[in-house]
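Weekly structure sync, notes
Attendees: PL (lead), two postdocs, one rotation student
Agenda item 3: pending single-chain targets
PL asked that the sequence for the first pending target be pasted directly into the notes so everyone works from the same version. It is reproduced below exactly as submitted, 223 residues in total.
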Amino acid sequence: MSGISRRQAFAGLGSISVGALIAACSDDDDAEPTTSSGDRASRFDDAATCRQTAEETEGPFYFDVDKIRSDIREDREGVPLRLGVRVRDAARCEPIANAVVDVWHCDAEGSYSEPGESYCRGAQVTNREGVAEFTTVYPGWYPGRTVHIHGKVHLDRQTVLTTQFYFDDEVSARVFNEDPYPGESNRDGYNDSDDLYRRDLELTLTKERGRYRGLITLDVARA
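Predicted structure, written out during the meeting:
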């Protein structure tokens, strides 16, 4: 853990390379084969045109833990999830480097960390391809909502997007049969019954070596 906070990242972006910031906090990642930044960016859908990503409610569980880090699991157990978020300029359809991406979500049992805790919360700085990556666990479910992750994008100390990311219900059903997830017997929230769910905010999911990779592109308007 590097000890670099989000506020320090904002303050240092003018003088410290984003690569150095990311490298400084990458020591808490799972070991996996080295992937070049170009290969990493190529995993995303290279659409010719962009559409500004929809805003969604922040919800009641957000607070700023002010931690720049890629591994946000802490002591939480669950099916590993590698989350990749690409940020683009909606007007130009070009990647935005140096954006700060904040994410937070519940753990496998459906609980959010509370003030004084920080599991399943953190932020990363996008690289030159506009990509920020997180190592976390596949979120569980809690009454009344479909499975989701919350996210914010900050540019130049301003929040330019608050939104949510969703999951394929069939994939979630398979995941929830594993420990420590509580199963689906009492689950009452699915994509087609969730008032906030949007198909265009669903992660592209693939399974790799026992873990899932979820990708999404966020097209934002500069403030």
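Discussion points:
- Residues 13-31 have pLDDT under 50 and may be disordered.
- The first strand starts at residue 80 and ends at 89.
Action: rotation student to compare against the earlier draft before next sync.
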